[in-house]
Design goal:
Helix content: 25-40%
Distance between the termini: 31 Å
Number of helices: 11
Largest sheet: 6 strands, mixed
Strand content: 15-25%
Structural class: alpha/beta
Bound molecules: adenosine-5'-triphosphate, magnesium ion
CATH topology: Rossmann fold
């Protein structure tokens, strides 16, 4: 049976956790951090245009430490663009974005490198290198960003692979040999390689069968609960939104039109928000949440 994250919650320190450093203190930090309202991401008056098309128009958004935050909105509303702006892959035309206390406007190379080591990104289509095994893919960020020797990198990669809920056999497989669910988990293992404080997930459950999707739901929750990670995800998955997200922001017409828990959003009237709740799928997910809380 694949290990669950809970098996990593045993007393940690150098011996159990090969990464030795950060994770050892994370549990205590997680509890403290979870209770603060400190903004890990602060987006102020961000505007983005592609030619004549306005994608973001003075958009404001704050994401707090140790929350599971979801970004939703119709196709083309600018979710992926905003995510790319949060991870230094793209620049807004104006406004400011601060991540982990650093202003993303023209950071120095050193500051950008340091930031990239503090967040992990799981891209929508995995983004794994097809010519590398799962283990080599997961070890890659460690090879690029640390001076650890090969044996330790291998050990760390195995650790992250197990953490993401993959069986040890998967380590030697190539991406083309993986199922969709395994691919998501391998991509998550790579995103976790450097013990990030912040995790960005683009459609983490898209295309998965219900059982695999439920596994990802649980993993996301455990990562936050055990390690105090802040999770920012783009998703259309109503179960993930209702069962896992702490707060959700709805993007439409260049701005955040509503923000809050799903229950709070369910009361709002904006048409862009209503589309997530009205209709049979929206109602079923809401009913399921109510049923679970009984
Ligand atoms: N590099 C680019 N050049 C030109 N237009 C772009 C570029 N990137 C995004 N756009 C446009 O900006 C708009 C927002 O795109 P974005 O990918 O952020 O949408 P999205 O909310 O992620 O949509 P989806 O749910 O379909 O993934 C779209 O109309 C898209 O065509
Ligand atoms: Mg997108």
């Amino acid at each position: 049976m694949a290990p669950t994250l809970s098996s990593f919650a045993a007393p940690r320190g150098g011996a159990q956790c090969p990464s030795g450093g950060r994770a050892g203190t994370d549990m205590q930090n997680a509890e403290n951090a979870a209770q603060t309202n400190e903004a890990v991401i602060k987006i102020s008056k961000v505007s983005t245009r592609f030619g004549a098309q306005v994608v973001h128009s003075e958009l404001d958004l704050e994401i707090r430490r140790a929350e599971i935050f979801a970004l939703i909105g119709g196709s083309g509303s600018g979710k992926s663009t905003l995510l790319r702006e949060m991870i230094l892959l793209q620049r807004p035309d104006s406004g400011s974005i601060r991540v982990l206390g650093v202003d993303l406007h023209e950071p120095t190379d050193e500051a950008a490198l340091a930031l990239r080591q503090r967040w992990g990104v799981m891209f929508q289509h995995g983004g794994l290198f097809g010519s590398l095994t799962v283990k080599e893919n997961v070890g890659l960020p460690l090879r690029e960003h640390s001076r650890l020797d090969d044996a330790l990198i291998d050990e760390l990669a195995d650790w992250k692979i197990a953490m993401a809920g993959l069986k040890p056999e998967a380590a030697g497989q190539y991406p083309s040999e993986l199922s969709g669910g395994m691919m998501k988990r391998a991509s998550l293992a790579r995103a976790l390689a450097l013990d990030p404080e912040l995790l960005f997930l683009d459609e983490p459950t898209a295309g998965l069968d219900p059982e695999s999707a439920a596994g990802v739901d649980q993993l996301v929750r455990e990562l936050r609960d055990l390690f105090g990670l802040t999770v920012v995800m783009i998703t259309h998955d109503l179960d993930l939104l209702w069962q896992v997200a702490d707060r959700v922001a709805v993007l439409a017409d260049g701005k955040v039109q509503g923000i809050g828990t799903m229950a709070e959003l369910a009361q709002m009237k904006h048409p862009a928000i209503r589309q997530f709740f009205d209709g049979p799928r929206g109602r079923a997910a809401q009913d399921q949440k109510i049923e679970n809380e009984k």
